[in-house]
Design brief:
The complex is a heterotrimer. By secondary structure, chain B is mainly alpha-helical. Chain B has 13 helices and no strands. Chain B is globular and about 80 Å long.
């Protein structure tokens, strides 16, 4: 690591902690993504096929790195597929909210009072509908599954995204270069794409990371309740539920998926905080 | 202030209206033929039509909506298709579990977060301040159901102090009911407290850097007096806003924690009815929860008005 | 019989970790005296003021002696200092917009100070607060006392701040650029009020500003700060008529007056070349040497102390200039 000698050495300790946050975040997130992607190409065992003779093997048993569950299915393979689910569902929900929220937030900021009031009040209303409730309703009507979960997450996160992007865009819109662009009679959509969007990109990346993490937590919760993803898909939340139902909470089976969730969510949150310090110094203090 | 109250009240009513239409359309629109959903894949067309006629599901959607919302306003939440039980009866007994759980969880969260967040804001360079910040960061990453599992593993299985699950009703044993709620409330409160700690910390940091806190000290308050009399009073404003926003999350946590500890609360009832495809029951109870959240948000908004003269006295 | 000075500062150093924003400042302000402290932003004048009040931001530390009312303020606890702040020593801050508690009525904020330090009851404190507001020329004081800060103007807020600072007849008032955040038309009124009110109470005034005419009008002595040190000190008339330090000279020359303000290129308005050096890259010797027209090798290696002529300079203005090849 090199720090240019001209940099202000005012708070070296904080700087080092910041770098540490970002580094841990990057490492954990990369490991998580690698595990999820690897699951497409290689799994030690089929995570859905029961092997009764091998049931409830402890961690470190030959062939089973973390042992097996009550039906003899390999825990590590299940964790790998669980990572895949977390990645697709969490990132999917965050991505849809990011796209809709950015469009809505920019529109609220740029298209006058009526648009702003409508979008902002709409977001307020959506915010007071618990995401869990939306998910339950969707599960009752269109059935549970990964897609339903992504939809529920999107409905849950979009209003928050909209609010954050709106306030970031509003502060950009007050800058002089926007006024200048207006004086040149640039159309509003052009100003938004050319000037506002690049300036809120940092906020977008940071928020995406944080909601990715929140999406993983929510997905795990829904799958734990049995209204999230279903087999043959596997979720860490689902694994916890099965462990609790089938062998009780004192089993080590109730540890692995929980630990996986905590580590990955913590890593993504650290990554988000680290990125915020780098990309979005104005917001950094509010962390 | 009257204008402010009227505006917030109007928004509350609008929000309830919009949410009810959304929920209704979501269930009826996305769900397709409700009677078919209820009866399942193997039902004959005649049976489906009969059920639809019996419950008026063949009427135009807007008629059904006004029917539903009209009854809802009179406290009639509809009836279960299978058992014909009134939903109101199903709900009431379960609220005596869910509401104490949810409210105590919120209070515990605040009781943890306000001192912890304040301390870590003022002592970020001390070891304990850093430990609090770290614990809060980790706590945010812990799913509430895992917290519940770990706590019941420790206090229920290992130490045997508290039940790991199940419910003793209030009228059977008050002490038993409280005992069944202790671990669920702690799980909810700890996890909520972890994320609230972060917000309290940043609100206090922000406020303590304000010029008016310096003025308070420059006119003779000690650092502690300035914190308690000026700082926290001003930090209460952003904290109130965040608490309002966390209510929706708290409901989600309550749903999950009732499952972890097998508490027969409102959410267990909803889950069972989701599984049984009791569409009307789900629709009405969900609406009830949304009204509850919106009502709490209304209270928070009004409280904000009382706390902040800039809002209270605005025209 | 001699009255002890309002404040006596000896070799005050204020720093964060190993960076010092104030590097050995000494001055004495007699009881009822009025001193101006001038310098560019970053010269350490605000840090000096905060150190006197014991209100340095977290992580900053003061060393040296600040004698006031028989105690050394630098070594006192927060509790002892707080019993003095607002009573024997008080401060008026730069930005009245953000310096009042937004959720408390302004009358109460003044009354709080009186109640806290004078031990009078709430009602009596409020009566005195309204009295003070009358003295501050605030309109409809009874009604204004019940207002919240967001309901009154910037000039009114600063008058409230001055009322809070004066409430207990302090021996010393520090005013840190009290008018920079106000409209030009209001500035003069607030300064006149501050001037009159401190004189009436015989409070000493330490006026921090970069506005030289204000100092000339309000103060008896002036200290010029540069890069954390006092580089020139003396009676206002002497320093402004006959500056000895090249920095003071530069400051005076860069003041716009009616005859040098022409901006058509013929302007004689000069500025000091260069910028105030950042703390972590202070030049050795006299900190002003890179910008000084008279700097020599000696200036680059040896730090000048404040001399009896009032300037900390090896080659003061008016002395025989050493011309370097």
């Amino acid at each position: 690591m090199t720090i240019a000698p001209t940099a202000t050495p005012a708070k070296p300790r904080r700087r080092r902690r910041r770098n540490l946050t970002l580094t841990i975040g990057i490492v954990v997130t990369a490991a998580f993504m690698a595990m999820a992607l690897a699951s497409f190409f290689y799994l030690p065992h089929n995570p859905n096929v029961p092997r009764i003779p091998d049931r409830l093997l402890p961690a470190g048993s030959p062939g089973y790195l973390l042992g097996t569950d009550a039906l003899g299915r390999d825990i590590f393979s299940q964790l790998m597929v669980g990572a895949r689910t977390s990645l697709t569902v969490g990132a999917g929900g965050a991505l849809i909210s990011l796209v809709i929220g950015t469009i809505a937030g920019l529109s609220a900021a740029a298209f006058g009072r009526v648009a702003d009031e409508t979008i902002s009040r709409g977001a307020d209303i959506m915010l007071s509908i618990p995401g869990m409730v939306t998910a339950l309703v969707l599960a009752a009507t269109i059935g549970s599954g990964a897609l339903t979960t992504i939809l529920a997450l999107s409905a849950f996160f979009t209003p928050s995204f909209t609010r954050v992007i709106r306030s970031a865009a509003l502060s950009v819109m007050q800058e002089d270069f926007i006024t200048a662009a207006r004086l040149y009679d640039r159309p509003t959509w052009f100003i938004l794409l050319r000037h506002v969007l690049p300036n809120v990109a940092g906020v977008m990346i940071v928020q995406f990371t944080l909601y990715f993490a929140a999406g993983i937590l929510t997905e795990a919760g829904l799958s734990y309740l049995g209204v999230g993803v279903t087999r043959p898909s596997i979720s860490w939340g689902m694994m916890l539920n099965e462990a609790q139902q089938q062998v009780g909470i004192s089993s080590p089976l109730a540890m692995w998926p929980g630990l996986a969730i905590v580590i990955v969510v913590l890593g993504l949150n650290l990554l988000g905080d680290g990125l915020r310090d780098v990309l979005d110094p104005k917001l950094a203090r509010r962390a | 202030m009257p204008v402010y109250i009227a505006r917030k009240l109007a928004f509350f009513l609008l929000a309830v209206l919009v949410a009810s239409i959304a929920i209704f359309l979501l269930i009826r629109g996305a769900g397709g033929n409700v009677a078919a959903v209820i009866l399942g894949k193997d039902a004959t067309a005649e049976a489906i039509n009969a059920l639809a006629q019996q419950y008026g599901l063949d009427r135009p959607l807007f008629v059904q909506y006004f029917d539903w919302i009209g009854n809802l306003l009179q406290g009639d939440l509809g009836r279960s298709f299978r058992t014909n039980e009134p939903v109101t009866d199903l709900v009431v007994s379960r609220l005596s579990i869910s509401i104490p759980l949810c409210v105590s969880g919120l209070i515990l969260g605040l009781v943890i977060a306000i001192p912890a967040g304040t301390y870590s804001a003022l002592n970020s360079d001390k070891p304990l301040g850093a430990v609090i910040a770290l614990l809060s960061q980790v706590g945010i990453a812990v799913p509430v159901f895992w917290a519940g599992i770990l706590l019941s593993l420790l206090f229920g299985v290992r130490l045997g102090w508290l039940p790991t699950g199940g419910w003793t009703n209030w009228d059977v044993s008050l002490w038993g009911a409280v005992r069944s709620l202790v671990l669920p409330v702690i799980s909810l409160g700890l996890i909520l407290g972890a994320s609230l700690t972060r917000y309290v910390r940043s609100a206090v940091l922000d406020v303590m850097n304000q010029d008016y806190v310096r003025t308070a000290r420059a006119t003779g308050m000690t650092r502690m007096q300035a914190l308690l009399q000026v700082g926290l009073r001003n930090a209460a404003l952003p904290i109130a806003t965040v608490v309002g926003l966390q209510i929706a999350e708290l409901i989600g946590g309550t749903v999950i924690i009732e499952t972890v500890f097998s508490l027969p609360g409102l959410s267990r009832m909803i889950l069972a009815n989701v599984a049984a495809r009791e569409v009307i029951v789900v629709q009405s109870t969900v609406m009830l929860i949304i009204i509850f959240v919106m009502f709490i948000n209304l209270i928070v908004d009004l409280l904000y008005g009382v706390l902040d003269p800039r809002v209270r006295l605005a025209r | 019989m001699t009255t002890p000075p309002a404040i006596e500062v000896k070799n005050l150093t204020v720093g964060y970790e190993d960076l010092n924003a104030v590097r050995g400042v000494s001055f004495t302000l007699p009881a009822g005296g009025r001193m101006g402290l001038v310098g560019e932003s970053g010269s350490g004048k605000s840090m000096t003021a905060l150190a006197l009040m014991g209100l340095l931001p977290a992580g900053w530390q003061a060393h040296g002696e600040v004698l006031h009312d028989g105690v050394n303020l630098v070594s006192q606890s927060d509790r002892v200092l707080s019993s003095r702040r607002g009573r024997t020593i008080s401060m008026v801050f730069q930005d009245p917009m953000s310096s009042l508690n937004p959720v408390r009525r302004v009358g109460d904020q003044i009354a709080d100070v009186i109640h806290r330090h004078n031990g009078v009851g709430r009602r009596e404190a409020m009566r005195q607060a309204v009295d003070l507001m009358v003295q501050m020329n605030l309109p409809r004081p009874e009604q204004l006392a019940r207002s919240y800060p967001h309901q009154i103007s910037g000039g009114q807020k600063q008058r409230i701040m001055i009322a809070m600072a004066l409430a207990c007849y302090p021996q010393l008032i520090i005013a840190d650029e009290p008018t920079t955040a106000l409209d030009v038309t209001v500035q003069k009124q607030v300064l006149r009020l501050l001037n009159a009110a401190t004189r009436e109470r015989n409070s000493a005034l330490l006026m921090i500003t970069h506005d030289l005419p204000v100092i000339a009008a309000m103060c008896d002595t002036v200290a010029v700060m540069y890069a954390g040190r006092i580089v020139e000190y003396g009676p206002v008339q002497d320093v402004f008529r006959n500056p000895r330090h090249h920095y003071t000279r530069g400051l005076l020359d860069s003041q716009p007056t009616m005859d040098n303000i022409a901006l058509d290129g013929s302007s004689r308005l000069v500025s000091i070349p260069g910028m105030v050096p950042p703390l972590q890259r202070l030049p050795s010797g006299c900190a002003f040497n890179p910008r000084c027209p008279a700097a020599t090798e000696k200036c680059r290696t040896e730090m000048p102390e404040l001399a009896p002529n009032g300037a900390a300079c090896w080659h003061p203005v008016g002395a025989v200039q050493v011309v370097e090849a």
